[in-house]
């Protein structure tokens, strides 16, 4: 009887983990499809790069403005119902883009979808952190990050297959998110433990951030370093004389690094210590951009360095979330994850402009020097937290 209960309990936990990780994969796939799809359509509609940039900023702005209030929603609405409703809102919102070809409508729709996507991310990450066994927390979150990266890559593949014109890519994007609604509602298992009213307040986000400041700042670094790399590495490659083909291959290599290194790094963090791993990642994040500068004239020598750098920068996400999980109680996890997402959004806004200005100031290597300096500023924090 006890064995039957144990098996049933394990299966229920597995179902919940499947749903939470699936939500991350769906979000990644939708992102990988929608980000370039919206930009390409705006370019065709307006011929303005600024319009594409402003529309993309709407999603980041939604993330920063909505994040402090999302844990409070979990305390008032069933998290499972809120997650399913968010997926449905995203699916329906995507269909607005081909139906209404007005730039201002696209901006508002992108903002609304940005709020719903932020709910999906915070809910799925909080849920996984609550379900994770302490000794395997980083490994499990590494699986989640790998599925997220794979989803992002498959979204780009869908764009390549379906193109950017007509209704087909939009319908595919809507179907991706709609596909997640039924498993969220009907695959039974342990649900996300909602915070209390006090634990879900915007003030609670600041309180929980003080419990694991190094982990929250890891979210900032992840946003700043990864987004700076993908935004500016093509420009850097062009300024250093690389062909368009080589630049494309370098970007693919970076994405593969993010996909392949999360699970090994997560396993290492569970064995060697998560704060120790953050400190080691930061040492590498300071050094590798300098090696890339030194190798910039040697073409193919860049590939292993880019693979390593993006894989390590992405691990700030995996390991930072696992540190939050070990430092924060279950009821506080939603607020702590919200703080992490807020830090990520802030890093995504701050990093690329700083990198771009540094590249113009010290052409072309200032961009990589800026990445190294950002990591160097964080290094004493990571080392001090490791010693504690």
Description:
- This protein has 388 residues and is mostly helical.
- 84% of the residues lie in helices and 0% in strands.
- It has 17 helices and no strands.
- It starts with a helix and ends with a helix.
Offer a few descriptive terms.
17 helices, 388 residues, mainly alpha, globular
How far apart, in Å, are the first and last alpha carbons? 45 Å
Count the beta strands.
0
What would you call the shape? globular
**Share of helical residues:** over 70%
Short description:
The protein has 388 residues and is mainly alpha-helical.
What's the layout of helices and strands?
Layout: H1 2-46, H2 49-66, H3 70-76, H4 79-94, H5 96-99, H6 103-131, H7 137-162, H8 168-178, H9 181-186, H10 202-211, H11 213-239, H12 244-260, H13 262-272, H14 274-295, H15 302-327, H16 333-361, H17 366-387
Helix pairs in contact: 1-2, 1-6, 1-7, 1-8, 2-6, 2-16, 4-6, 4-8, 6-15, 6-16, 7-12, 7-13, 7-15, 10-16, 11-12, 11-15, 11-16, 11-17, 12-15, 13-14, 13-15, 14-15, 14-17, 15-16, 16-17
